[in-house]
């Protein structure tokens, strides 16, 4: 008599696990790539400034943007090729500007943000750190293509309540990645005790952003 309910529960659990794993895998495959947000969090982890707040913001914003896409925003954006094209161009310009700022720090203002007495980074308040992260996250048009359009459109194909299991999987992937990134930054603190290491990081950051900007521009 209990065979059918048991089979039903097993099917439901399997469907939920599949949706969660899909959200986790899709989100992780996209956020692992080097981007402005990842480099910002890594930079804060190396400095040891408000890392938990940065991780919390990134996970919450990723979950919110994916949820918006799943709820229907992805379909709205997908029906407007002009808007998608504008987002790609805007993303390319954003990444280009981020790269230019990084090279400015590396070549023209290498001591910006350094304490002249000890060669250490000047501490910023949590609101200052999170406001910078918010700008990088929410004003980067390319973020919306990744989270809202791409991930959101995949999640929207899930059935009923499984859409939100997908969002939970995506949020879990985001949490996993940024915790790993924060841990990696802590391990690199000894290396970045030397101010020259910051110049190297800014130089590499700028180069990465230029490559990403070119890739996004080509896609547009």
TrEMBL record:
Signal peptide: none
Cellular component annotations (GO), alphabetically ordered: plasma membrane
Alphabetized UniProt keyword annotations: Cell membrane, Membrane, Transmembrane, Transmembrane helix
Keyword Transcription applies: no
Pfam families in alphabetical order: LysE (PF01810)
Residues annotated as transmembrane: 20-42, 54-77, 83-101, 122-144, 164-185, 197-217
Any one Gene Ontology molecular-function term assigned to this protein's record: amino acid transmembrane transporter activity
Keyword Plastid assigned: no
Compartment(s) where it occurs, according to its Swiss-Prot or TrEMBL record: Cell membrane
Bilayer disposition of the protein: Multi-pass membrane protein
UniProt protein name: L-lysine exporter family protein LysE/ArgO
Taxonomic path: Bacteria, Pseudomonadati, Pseudomonadota, Betaproteobacteria, Burkholderiales
């Amino acid at each position: 008599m209990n065979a059918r309910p048991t089979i039903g529960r097993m099917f439901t659990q399997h469907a939920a696990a599949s949706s969660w794993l899909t959200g986790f895998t899709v989100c992780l495959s996209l956020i692992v790539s080097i981007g402005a947000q990842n480099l910002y969090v890594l930079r804060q982890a190396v400095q040891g400034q408000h890392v938990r707040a940065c991780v919390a913001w990134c996970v919450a914003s990723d979950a919110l943007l994916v949820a918006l896409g799943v709820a229907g925003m992805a379909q709205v954006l997908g029906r407007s090729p002009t808007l998608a094209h504008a987002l790609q161009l805007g993303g390319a310009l954003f990444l280009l500007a981020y790269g230019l700022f990084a090279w400015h720090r590396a070549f023209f203002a290498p001591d910006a943000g350094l304490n002249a007495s000890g060669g250490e980074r000047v501490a910023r308040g949590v609101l200052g750190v999170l406001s910078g992260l918010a700008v990088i996250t929410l004003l980067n048009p390319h973020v919306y293509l990744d989270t809202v359009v791409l991930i959101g459109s995949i999640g929207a194909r899930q059935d009923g309540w499984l859409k939100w299991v997908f969002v939970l999987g995506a949020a879990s992937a985001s949490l996993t990645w940024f915790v790993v990134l924060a841990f990696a930054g802590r391990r690199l603190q000894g290396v970045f005790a030397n101010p020259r290491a910051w110049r190297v990081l800014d130089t590499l950051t700028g180069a990465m952003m230029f490559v990403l900007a070119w890739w996004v521009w080509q896609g547009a």
